[in-house]
Predict the structure of Fibrinogen C-terminal domain-containing protein.
Amino acid sequence: MRTFKLFLLTLALSLQGFCPISAKALKGERQEKYKEENFNLNQIAITARDGSCRNCEASREAIDMFDIRVESLPQECQNLAIARNCAEITACTKRSGYYNVTVLVEGYPKSYLVECDAHTEGGGWTVIQRRQDGSVDFYRTWDNYKNGFGNIEGEFFIGLDRLYALTNFNGPQELLILMEGINQTAGNAVVFAYAKYSSFAIGNESEKYALKQTGNYSGTAGDSLRYHVGCKFTTKDQDNDSDPDGNCAVLRSGAWWYKNCYDR
């Protein structure tokens, strides 16, 4: 049975020397680069939005991130009426889309709408976050990160409750992070990087969604996640890190599994 896989796509906001740029500006460069590296623009679950989104309100609270048409399974895939993950769905449908998956949460079945990527790195990925144009504010509260926010067709985070369910049903899962950005120290060259972890899982809310494990790392972005294994999730309104000097989410302007604010 194929493993369930999680996919996070972001401009390389966290890589030193990088700055975010719009998806539209990167389109031509990205297409050529992914051709070189056996990727395709349509294979990375991204909706390229024009620059006008930069003028939208950052929070977009009025938009329901899951208010979107759910793809119907084709007739030949009806045996997947209770699909457990994107790997099962895309193995049959052979196409990316928005589907319902059902997982067990504390012994009870629960259905979630997710975005499935059928092509990147063999397909079967569930997209859990996308950052591409700065249209959504990610400096948010605990409840926002618990429940998820943004627009699933654009920038969004799936939510820690869902992420816990997805990483604990059928055991820990692979995590793939694709990043791209401009390297200001190299003539504003477009740079691409990725990080892949073999066994990713987090705890539930009573455990403060602690990062349980990451497994083995591979990639070109550097291993910036494994250092934080065992750490609880911290947001600007809930300080769960171990740094005595303050709330790392406030000091670093972003929520994360922080051990110390400036070590990594």
